[in-house]
From TrEMBL:
Species name: Paenibacillus campinasensis
Name under which the protein is recorded: ATP-binding cassette domain-containing protein
Keyword Glycoprotein in annotation: no
Protein origin, superkingdom: Bacteria
PANTHER family on file: TRANSPORT ATP-BINDING PROTEIN
Record domain ABC transporter: where: 10-262
Keyword ATP-binding: yes
Family (UniProt): Belongs to the ABC transporter superfamily.
MF-aspect GO terms: ATP binding
Length: 344
């Protein structure tokens, strides 16, 4: 894994994102309610590291990524790139930010203009940022295609002429052509076959080393995030409930939700989990978040304290944080392998 330099280049502080819900007449009679997509999320990206953001569908991880990029405005909180806050950036600073922080979409085909050839698609950001003349831009396009494992002649094809794996390489090429410092990868391999997934992940790791990239890797796949990440944040219902270096997290998961996620994955060999935990019921509606700990409605160890007080994300062990009143090494371990059912 790439070693972090421990120098934060992007900081997310108390980020909130709420989407308004309107009634049958739209905005005419005002807001009916709010969907709490992201609630009080804070973390840092250190230069050269890969930070994995993991959670079930609907946990808010993709919204977090889009809010960090400014594609979705934050309701509350701050996103700091270096020493500058995203919402306080001037037009020129924001243009530089767009150049240095890029996004790889989950579905590359929907993000590629079907009416344009690949060369034109890749050249477009260079034209917007006024980088090089036509010959230099064309050479850059050919070069970046070779960097991601494609051929220069692919620049003259249309998006529909490529396979799923090739389109994901094109998504990477479009992000890399600006020589960014940070890439946000939003479920970049979830729609690919396992063999193609490994090719894209290995390519990402190689490019990270060669180009000194920092990655925010958003996924729901535990095995994928373990392979590529230096640190991992576990999201549940819009909140980060646990954060730790990858090896520490898999060696000793401290939050009951993390343990439930890991117990559903075939044994990794180093995990200390013994029990099989079956989560029953659905995630509570983000329209009405439960009081106290957001996981207490599905947690077998929940007490009255969990129902009434929200646990802070606190450091339990060095660099290992968990948002649980009772999180401690060995607290949730069992003596014998058993199966626990958690009623929804």
């Amino acid at each position: 894994m790439t070693q972090s330099t421990d120098q934060a280049i992007l900081r997310v502080q108390s980020l909130h994102k709420r989407f308004p819900v309107y009634g049958s007449f739209g905005k005419l009679f005002g807001t009916k309610a709010h969907v709490n997509a992201v609630t009080d999320v804070s973390f840092e990206l250190s230069e050269g590291e890969t930070y994995g953001l993991v959670g079930e569908s609907g946990s808010g991880k993709s919204t977090t990524g889009r809010t960090i990029l400014g594609l979705t405005p934050a309701t509350e909180g701050q996103v700091l790139y270096g020493d500058r806050e995203l919402n306080a950036m001037t037009k020129d600073e924001l243009k530089k930010f767009r150049k240095e922080v890029q996004l790889v979409f989950q579905d590359p085909y929907s993000s590629l203009n079907p009416r344009k050839r690949i060369g034109s698609i890749l050249e477009e950001p260079l034209i917007i940022h006024k980088l090089g003349n036509k010959e230099e831009r064309q050479e850059k396009v050919f070069q970046i295609l070779e960097t991601v494992g494609l051929r220069p002649e692919h620049a003259f094809r249309f998006p529909h002429e490529f396979s799923g794996g090739q389109r994901q390489r094109l998504g990477l090429a479009r992000a890399l052509i600006m020589n960014p410092k940070i890439i946000v990868c939003d479920e970049p391999v979830s729609a690919l076959d396992v063999s193609i997934q490994s090719q894209i992940l290995n390519l990402l790791k190689k490019l990270q080393q060669d180009m000194k990239l920092t990655l925010l890797f958003i996924t729901h796949d535990i095995s994928v995030v373990r392979y590529i990440s230096d640190r991992i944040g576990i999201m549940y219902l819009g909140k980060i409930v646990e954060e730790a270096p990858t090896d520490d997290l898999f060696r000793e998961p401290l939050h009951p939700y993390t343990r439930a996620l890991f117990s559903a994955v075939p044994d990794f060999g180093r995990s200390r989990l013994k029990e099989r935990i079956i989560l029953k019921g659905e995630i509570p509606s983000p329209l009405a978040l439960p009081s106290g700990c957001v996981f207490h409605t599905r947690c077998p160890w929940a007490t009255e304290l969990c129902r009434s007080e929200t646990p802070p994300l606190r450091e339990i062990m060095p660099h290992h944080k968990a948002a649980c009143h009772y999180a401690a090494p060995g607290y949730f371990n069992t003596e014998q392998p058993i199966e626990k059912e958690i009623e929804g």
